[in-house]
Amino acid sequence: MAASDQKASAGQQWGEAEIEKALKRLAKDTFEALQESSKTAYSAIQEYKQAATNEETSKVFERAKQSRQDNPKGIKPWRARDDPDWLGTNT
After folding, report:
1. What is the mean pLDDT of each run of 10 residues along the chain (91 residues)?
2. What are the residue ranges of helices labelled H in the chain?
3. What CA–CA distance (Å, rounded) separates 23 from 14?
4. Is the pTM higher than 0.90?
5. 8 Å CB contact between 21 and 4
6. Are 25 and 31 in contact (CB under 8 A)?
7. What's the confidence (pLDDT) of residue 87?
8. Residue 62's CB: how many other CB atoms inside 10 A?
């Protein structure tokens, strides 16, 4: 092979050295992808934690808790047939 980073073309056999280099590069690339994925997941978790402990979210949960206490049988589900003009615009 002319350059160490070139891939073997169809019909060309890789030597042991090329295979070793490819395996090392694969491990490095896989590890970098794992690191990036971990950073993204960590950011998403932090964002969720922040939103879940937000004052506004706490108010919403408290209101839902109070609503469940006031109406323990639950909330009546909304159905389109109950409101035939639900697709209409108000403007």
Report:
1. 52 85 91 96 96 93 90 80 80 52
2. 16-52, 55-70
3. 12
4. no
5. yes
6. no
7. 82
8. 10
Residues in the chain: 91
pLDDT value at position 7?
Answer: 59
Tokens of 7: 């891939």
Cβ(8)–Cβ(14) under 8 Å? yes
Task: Tell the residue number behind the tokens 């159905």, with chain if given.
Answer: 79
Query: CA 42 to CA 48: how far, in whole Å?
Result: 10
Task: Tell which residue, 75, 55, 52, 53, has the closest CA to residue 64.
Answer: 75
Q: What is the largest CA-CA distance in the chain?
A: 77
- One-letter amino acid for residue 57 of the chain: T
